Amino acid sequence: MMVSFFDQFASPLYLGIPLIAIAITLPWVLYPTPSSRWINNRLITVQGWLINRFTNQLMLPLNMGGHKWALLLVSLMIFLITINMLGLLPYTFTPTTQLSLNMGFAVPLWLVTVIIGMRNQPTVALGHLLPEGTPIPLIPVLIIIETISLFIRPLALGVRLTANLTAGHLLIQLIATAVFVLLPMMPTVAILTATVLFLLTLLEVAVAMIQAYVFVLLLSLYLQENV
After folding, report:
1. Which residues contact 204 (CB under 8 A, 6 or more apart)?
2. Which of 48, 78, 97, 102 could make an SS bond with 158 (beta carbons 3.0 to 4.6 A apart)?
3. What is the mean pLDDT of the chain?
4. How many CB atoms within 10 Å of residue 34?
5. Which spans are transmembrane here (predicted)?
6. Residue 8: how many CB atoms within 10 A of its CB?
7. Angle at 224 between CA 108 and CA 117, to 5 degrees
8. What are phi and psi of 36, to 5 degrees?
């Protein structure tokens, strides 16, 4: 039984072809394309308003040099939210439960922010490794600690997203299994458990959106340090 709980995180295959590629490319088909008309429909208008509000909020602490990242960061957040939300549907696969995919997003983007900082302002970038006013005997230790914390950042980004989504999916499957087992024996308890399952599903919807926002927000904070 425990093995079957984790089978939902295995990438599905069809004729030996992994379907994770379809799961990654599908979200882009679901969004309507803005037209060249002056007046759009309600869906495109709401979509544009939400994207503009999030872009303004995300770019607020950044200077003009960081605004060129707006398209990349907003597209990444919309992509992650869509994948996370689609993964809550029955008989679907969530690519963001794979640590390899999340690290594939986190490592290159984090590395680009570090390279930008080392290219534009190397003194400030290296100054983050040693806080001002540090006693001389603690300098080697603090440099090592700050360097380790710098390289742990992409790992924390990927593991945070993977762990939160994996834990939520496991809880949903465990409680759903309990509902089916208790229904013939104790219907009242099964109904109460189903209510808990419904509330947990609502919580997972919020987690799916919040984790995508946190992923992009932390990237923007790393970018703020180096731009």
Report:
1. 88, 168, 169, 172
2. 102
3. 84
4. 11
5. 12-31, 69-89, 101-118, 138-159, 171-199, 205-223
6. 18
7. 60
8. -85, 5
Question: What pLDDT is stored for residue 59 in this prediction?
Answer: 82
What angle do helix axes 99-120 and 187-226 make, rounded to 10 degrees? 20
Give the pTM. 0.83
Short-list 67, 90, 31, 107, CA closest to 227: 67
Residue 60, SS3 per DSSP: coil
pLDDT-derived band at 119, boundaries 50, 70, 90: confident
How far apart CA 187 and CA 192 sit, in angstroms, is 9
Provide the 10 A C-beta neighbour count for residue 93: 20
What tens digit of pLDDT does each residue of 7-44 get? 666 777 777 777 777 778 777 777 777 667 776 777 77
Pairwise CA distance, residues 220 & 99, whole Å: 21
Kindly state the helix (H) or strand (E) to which residue 208 belongs, with its residue range: helix 187-226
- Give the β-pairing of 17-18 and 13-14: antiparallel
Please tell me the number of Cα atoms within 13 Å of 118 on its side-chain side. Answer: 7
Q: Which of 25, 27, 22, 26 is nearest to 12 (CA)?
A: 22
78 in Cβ contact with 143 (< 8 Å):
no
Tell me the one-letter amino acid at 116: I
Q: Mean per-residue pLDDT for 51-80? A: 85
Contacts for 65 with CB less than 8 Å, ≥ 6 apart:
120, 227
pLDDT of residue 8: 65
